[in-house]
Amino acid sequence: MIESKPTSPFADSFGRQISYLRVSITDRCNFRCVYCMPEDGINFVPRPEILTYEEITEIVSVFAEHGVRRVRLTGGEPLVRADVVDLVASLKSIPGIEELCLTTNAFLLPKLAEPLKAAGLDQLNISLDSLRAERFEEITRVGDLERVIAGIDAAIAAGFESIKVNAVVVRGFNDDELLDLIRFAAGRGLIMRFIEFMPIGGDTVWGDNACVTAQEMRQAVSEAWTVSLDPPTGKVAGPSRYWSVSGDGLPAGTKFGIISAVTECFCADCNRVRVTPKGGLRACLADDREINLRDLLRSPASPEDRRVRLATAIESALFGKKEKHAFDLDGGAVTGKRMHAIGG
Ligand code: SAM
Ligand code: SF4
To answer: Of 90, 137, 142, 288, whose CB count within 10 A is highest?
Structure first.
C-alpha cells in the first residue's frame, strides 16, 4: 500500500493554485464549426478509450480533495454524450465542488435544460457566433440558429441564474455583429462575451489575420456606445474583463466581456487545468504535453492507492506547467490537436 499524504491544494511551480478543472467528456459533436473541427474524415476517439462517468467522477474527486472548487464540462459537445444528466448529478455530489458549469452549443438545450438544472448544474456558457442564419450555418456547417436561440430561451426558462453567451470574433466574418450580439444578450438579461480567435490545431480557414484583438473589439463598441471598465480595476475571477455599456436602446445594466487569450494574456492568474476525453491531463490549453490519467485509473490497485497515484501524476503535470502560452498574432497553430479534441 502506498502511503497517503495529507492533501494540500494543487499548485504549479509558479505558485498558482489550481481551483478550476475543465473536463472534456467527448470529442464528438453535432456541429462542425469551421475553426474547431474538419468537415469530415475525423478520427474520433474510439469509445472504449473515452473515460467512463465513474472514471471522470474519480478524477474530479481527487481534484476536489486538493482544492478544486469549480468544474466545467465541455467537449466536443457535452450534451451529445448519453446520460450527461447523470454525470452532472454525480459530480455535483462530490464534497468540495461548489460550482458545476457546462459549455454548450445549445442545440440540445430545449430538451435538456430543465433536467440539467434539476440535477444541480449551476452555470451555462452558450456559444453563439452569429445572429444571421446563413452565417450561422456557414460557421457551424450544420447549425440551426432558431434551434440554438430556442435552447438559450429554454435555459432561461429552466431558471439558470448564470448564463453567458460567447462568440469567437473572426475578422471579416462576424466582426460586424458585436453590437447586435450585445443587444441580443442584453435583451434577455444575459452577458455577451467575445473571445479572441486562438491559433489552436491545424490550419485555420481564415488565415493569419483572423484574430480580432481585444483592443479592436473595445474600440468598435465604444465608437457606438459609452463604455467603461466594470469593475474599474478590471479585476474579476476568471479570464474575462467586463465593460458596462450604455447607449441607444440598451437596457440599464448592460455589460459585455472580452476573453483576450491571445493579445492580453491572463496566464499570470491561471488557476485551471484540463482533462481530455481520453483522460489526458493538460496543464495548459496551448501545450500539447499530456499526462495519461486513464491508464492509472485502469491499472490494478486499491482505490486508495489509485488516488495517491493520480494525485502524484497530477502534481508532476503541474510541475511542468509553463509560465505562459505561446500564442501570437502571426504564428501558426500552437497545438497539434483541434479544440474539439482538447475541450475549449
Ligand atoms: N461544443 C461546445 C460549444 O461549442 O460551446 C463546447 C466545446 S467548444 C470547443 C468550446 C468553446 O471553444 C466554444 O465557445 C468555441 O467557440 C470555442 N473555440 C473553438 N475553437 C476556438 C478557437 N480556435 N479560438 C477560440 N475559441 C474557440
Ligand atoms: Fe462542436 Fe463546439 Fe466545436 Fe462547434 S465549437 S464544432 S459546437 S465542439
So the answer is: 90
